[in-house]
Amino acid sequence: MKNIILLSIAIIFTLTTCNQNKNVHGEIEIEWTDKLSADFSFTEKWSYPEGIYENEFGQLICDGFCPPEVAGMYDDIGRIKEDSLNRYYRLVDTTHQHHTIESDAWTYEWAGTDFITANRVDHDTVVCFTHNNAATHSSLNLKIIGDKCIPTIELNSTTLNQGAKIYTCKSGQIQIDSDLWNKGFMKAEFNFIFDNTENPEQAMYWKGKIYTKINK
User: Fold this and answer.
1) Considering only CA atoms, which of 191, 196, 194, 193 is closest in space to residue 209?
2) Smallest Cα–Cα separation from 209: which of 4, 47, 42?
3) Which of 5, 13, 114, 150 is deepest in the core (most CB within 10 A)?
4) Element of type H or E holding 88
5) DSSP annotation string for 164-187
6) Torsion over CA: 175, 178, 184, 185 (sign)
């Protein structure tokens, strides 16, 4: 009888441990903290908007994502005409965009991302999504409701004609700075494991750090 009781306790402990920070709906319990010890110096890095680069004349120009109005503003050798410079830069965004996420992941059609947007939907809910680019077509999406975080990966493949594919979270952790959250900023460290339905033997994960303003 004693052995049965001990076995029952061991099973309950195992089940409790396995389901820590996880439930069947992919919800992760948020760990609110007043201090994150990770290095957030990535926020000092910046990039130009996608498609902006410096030409051989030292001018910032757009490539591939240009407003149609700029088509006649170049001379025969590809330089922006002197009398068109002011109007050109009113039409083309060349601002420095500071990075808001640093992360590592294994998921489909992912080559990295430097930006995440956080939007407040209502008093209790904030939704976040990472930005795709020419080489990255998988986005990390976070839905934060109260003390719960629901992470998913959304793949919008450029090679598979199947529409958006959603991968749900199996387990993970997320810590969020509570003081900054109350001031309208999201500073977080996370590590999520996702259900790879195509190839269960290949671990699908996304981990990293976030520091961004929460838009209202």
Assistant:
1) 191
2) 42
3) 114
4) helix 85-91
5) -EEEEEEEEEEEEEHHHHHTTEEE
6) negative
Residues recorded for the chain: 216
Cα 158 to Cα 135: distance, rounded to the nearest angstrom: 10
What residues form DSSP beta bridges with 215? Answer: 119
pLDDT, one tens digit per residue, over 23-78 is: 446 999 999 999 898 999 999 999 999 899 999 999 999 987 799 999 999 999 99
DSSP state of 40: -
Q: Angle CA(198)–CA(201)–CA(207) in degrees, nearest 5?
A: 85
> Quick one: tokens of 49?
């908007």
**Residue recorded with tokens 């050798």:** 77
Q: Which helix (H) or strand (E) holds 152?
A: strand 148-155
CB 107 within 8 A of CB 155: yes
Q: Encoding tokens for residue 96?
A: 């420095």
What confidence category does residue 98 fall into, taking pLDDT thresholds of 50, 70 and 90? very high
